[in-house]
Structures are given as C-alpha cells and as structure tokens.
C-alpha cells in the first residue's frame, strides 16, 4: 500500500530540507523558554546539585540506576548524570506528553563515558515513546547495539518492541557511537506514516529511517500508538557488560512541534575520570559526524584464485538527483568444489520501499556483479524476471512487491571454505525499465570497496515518507536477548515428530547420505525465512531411477524448527512441509533438492539462525524397500 498524507507547506519544506541535507535556519534556544513550538525543555540549570528524582515537570523512573545533577555540562553549568549497570534503566519522563497530531521532534545532548562492547549484541535504548491507546508498540527512535562482526563500537539504531511488528532494531555500520564526547541526537516521530527520522550532530541519517511499511519487524504495518509517555535516558538489557558501569550525562532536552537543531557545538568539559576519546569518534566538535568504521573485509585464502579483471570494481557514477535509490543487501553461502555452488539472497529497497510497479519510477533492470568470479552460471532463481548470467554479471528484472531476489549459482572461479566464499564481493548497476536512471548501492560487508554505488541522491520530495527517503533496514535485523531479570520467553521445543538419530543399518540396503546447507536467513518476529539445500548421495552416487534400488521417499527433520512451510522447492518430487519435517521424493539424476522455507521456533540474527538447526533423515525406497539414511556435516 502507498500512503499520501496531507502535509502542510511548512512540514513539506522542512522534510525537503532534511532530505536534501541542506542547512536550515534553526531556532536559538539557549534558555528553556516554554511556548511557541516547544512542548518540553530541560537544561538542568535551576536544579540543586545532587541526587534527583523529580520536579514539577518531570520524574525519573528506574530505581536500579542513580540520577544526579552535577557540574559536567554541554552548554550550561549542569547536566543530568545517570549511573547505570547492565540490565538497568533510568529515564526522565515529562509529567505530561500529548504531542499535537501525535507527532514530535526531539533533541538531547549526551556524553557517554563508554558504550557497551560486551556481551555480543548488547542492546540499549536512550529514547522510548509509548501510549496507552494502541497495540502496545514501544517506539524507540534513539538506541543502539554492539555488533562485533561489524564494528568495534556500538552502532546507533532505531527500533521497536511490544507490538505486532515484534522486537527489532535497525542499526547501521555508518552510524557508530562515539565514546567520551558530546553528541547531539535529534529525532522526529511523524505520525501520518509512522516514520522515525534521526539526525546525529546536526547531520541527517536517512539510513536509520523506518516507517509504517518499511521496518525490520514482522511484516505487518508499524503503527504508532497515541503517544502519552516519552522517556529519555539510558536502558541496557543484558547483564555482564563491558564496562560494568555506564556513566551518561544528558543535557538540553527539548521536545517540539518543529525541529530545534543542535544550535552550535558543545561547550562543556568532560569529567576528569573519563577515558580518552575513541579513535573512531570525532574529537569534540559536535557538528562533525563520528568517523565510520572500515567495512568488514571478506576473508581471503591463499588457495583462492585471484579476482579476474573482467569487470573491475570501478568507481560509481555521480548520484542522479531525483532518481530512485536502489539499495541491495546480499547474503551468501556456498558448498561443493569444482564447480562451487553459491546461494545468494538479496534484499532490495527502493527509496526505503520494496520494488513496486506503481511507485518510485516502476520496476528496474539490474546488473549484479560478482567480483571474484569469471564463469557464473544460473542453477535456480526466485522473485526475479529475465534472469541471465554472463561472465561475472547476473542480470535480472525486479518484480512487483518482491524485495527478496536470489538464486543458486555455480562457478569454477569461486573458492568455498567452511560454507563461506573467499574474497567474493558485489557491485550494482542498472536502470528503470522505462529507461530512467537509478542510484544503485550495495549495502553490507559484501560491498566492493570503491564500487558500491554513489551515496544515494535524495529523491524528489514525496509525501509518502515525509519527504525523506530511508535506506533499507532489512540487512540489520537483530533481536534483543531477554533482560537478565525477565522470564524466559523462548518458544517450546519442536515436537519430536521424527527420530533425531539414524535407525540401525539394514544389511544390503542403499546408503542415503544427506549433507544439508542452510543459507542466510531473513525475517523477524515469530517467523523466519531461510534457504535450505541438500546434497544427496546414494552409495556414493547421485540418485537414479535405474541404480541402487531406484528412487526414494525421504523425510528430512529440521530439529529446532516449528510450523515449517515451503514457499518454493526444487529438484524434488511431491514436496511437502509439515510440523518440522520436509518430505519429498528423489528425482532421477538430481542430487541437490532444496527450497525456500519459513518456520517458527528459532530467530534470525545477522543472517544466521539461532540456535543453529540440526537435521535427521528417514525414508524408504519408492518400491517399499529399506534404506540406510544418515546426515553428515
């Protein structure tokens, strides 16, 4: 569905200015004078030093943390100091919060001694809004998470919990946190499209934008509640953190009906005991964006063939103003030798939406270059039209409402070690089917450096998302581990509908051996999606109608999955998924059955299923004879 809310000229102008990253005239607010567009403002200047719990306009909630007023400051003489440990919370809540039209802009300055770097995937929130009227959704415009495979620093992100879209966070490698330096954080909650926009140190971060139909949660509409509560402070959800204690200073909190801005650099001095600023952080200039960490390099191998020069990772063309921003996030797994089979799934967003025939210029013809391959061939593809491969370029057309394009490909020039390709990266080119230009970009760690496409040019102002085109969030799906004190909510174990150990061998029966490869996963909430491919051998040969007793009916149990369904299958007869069992018949000379599946009972984190699925095999020959089934790693 596409939405075209009615926006006032002032709202449209503000949205366009934000989208174009142009300087805008912002209100100077050195003092917290209420009135006009200001709904709430606190600079902590008039409060006595020491422990604080409430004033006439706000309260502190979160008894597990200590809040004090001290002399560490950003723009005045005092700030709110929150001292917290892991799995604790302290938020400042305005006593009344009812933003007009259920939309609001916010601004706060923060100084964090050190953001969490342990445990892995440590998750925290600095701003959370909620409402008694609605579906229970908690809206978190400012938060973050430590993603060890992406950065040595925690990453800023937008997210939600508690509602139909589930628990999700849209973090980005391009938005690292900065330790021991003042940072200006701004956000917008735009009710007509349930859009969250974020600025860091005065710079718009469209890659953090999420909206009603573009988010990382279960794919149902993300809808704001009727806001009546908003908290700003710090909450960390796991114990055993590094550091063991977090020291956060918050200053100049403002909520308004229009954007307030940072209004200059921080003037305060850091606390004497604070550690030195992280190398990745901008020193103290609040208007300077923190340095972006280097992309995670693909692993290399001495045995890997050098990348061919057939299609080098060339510098991208300049961004075309007004052209739709196509962002493709690939995930990859592989198996086999000579040739190697490579399973690639891509998540495609166009101006923050899925490809659509009736939006953003329509559908497109794309060329995905496999840098590191020379002889790409297509074995199987899904959710794409006109698919072909030449040299190291995969060409295809997007399809209406199909954001997950993928396939299984073969190549003799790709090296596969432990299920991972060695040195394979991607770059993107293309145009609209109408002939119009696009701004193509590869997101994620598999982007070819120097060939990931231009920084997306903002599209023409559109009311569908407040004029700001978000970058995709689907490659950043991370579930938050349950708080230490929370009751465990993990799903019940999958029913033991099939044995998990192979039965005793039957003398003389053919030996069926299955090697199961699970590709990267996607999806959120209670349901995940994944690609599963099976390599079958029968007495060391591929299945055949005229050998080893003929073809067979097999039952592959997916231990750890529940409610298994198959949206697409290949190289199998009479395929059926039920419970946690994939049943199928082997086909003549087809050793690689597989499919795209959905299931509950597990979670998908950074493209990996947790806990990992395991497998067991049972079955019989179609003639009724016995087999000796087994699964190998």
TrEMBL record:
- PANTHER family in the record, alphabetically? SPLICING FACTOR, ARGININE_SERINE-RICH 15, TETRATRICOPEPTIDE REPEAT (TPR)-LIKE SUPERFAMILY PROTEIN
- Which keywords does this Swiss-Prot/TrEMBL entry list? Signal
The family database entries (InterPro entries) matched by this protein are listed as: Cip1-like_core
Q: What is the lineage of its organism?
A: Eukaryota, Fungi, Fungi incertae sedis, Chytridiomycota, Chytridiomycota incertae sedis
Query: Which Pfam families does the record associate with it?
Result: Polysacc_lyase-like (PF21340)
Q: Which organism is it from?
A: Gonapodya prolifera (strain JEL478)
Q: Which domain of life is it from?
A: Eukaryota
- The name on file for this protein is Cip1-like core domain-containing protein
Region listing for Disordered, in residue ranges: 267-300, 448-469
Residues annotated as signal peptide: 1-30
Q: Does the keyword Signal apply?
A: yes
The Cip1-like core domain is annotated at: 65-257
